Amino acid sequence: RICVITLAEAHPLLQNGKTITSINYQISANCSRLQNKVSGKSKRGAQFLTELAPLCRISSSDGEEYTIYSCIRGRLIEVNENILSNPAILQEKPSTEGYIAVVLPKFEESKSITQGLLTQKEYEEVLLKRLNSSS
């Protein structure tokens, strides 16, 4: 029932040999995802995220900055602090050690979230259509 937030295979940061220069969990002057302190079975203290809540900002060597959004509603269980000191794992192992955050959706919403997800095959078809329409 937990959701691990990672970069999609097609994300620009994972294309064209870009290098990540920094990752910042400081979303605004008053909000840092690093300040998220979760305790107990009911995950008290966890920051609540909406689908459009920014998780972090990632800067690349070409000067581009990407804001990574939660994309799901739920409680922020943890952020991956390891990518702060070693941003390369975000690109080398994006779906395992290079995850961005872990979010716990509300129990009653978790079923509708998973029903709306694409399978790997459906995702690849979307990417193929996107690639064909841009060429």
From TrEMBL:
GO molecular function: actin filament binding; actin monomer binding
Entry keyword set: Cell projection, Nucleus
Any Gene Ontology biological process: regulation of actin filament polymerization
Annotated localization: Cell projection, Dendrite; Cell projection, Growth cone; Cell projection, Lamellipodium; Nucleus speckle
Coarse class of the protein's main subcellular location: other
Gene3D superfamilies, per the entry: 2.40.50.100
PANTHER family per the UniProt record, alphabetical: PROTEIN ABITRAM (PTHR13651:SF0)
UniProt protein name: Protein Abitram
Organism: Corythaixoides concolor
The gene coding this protein: Fam206a
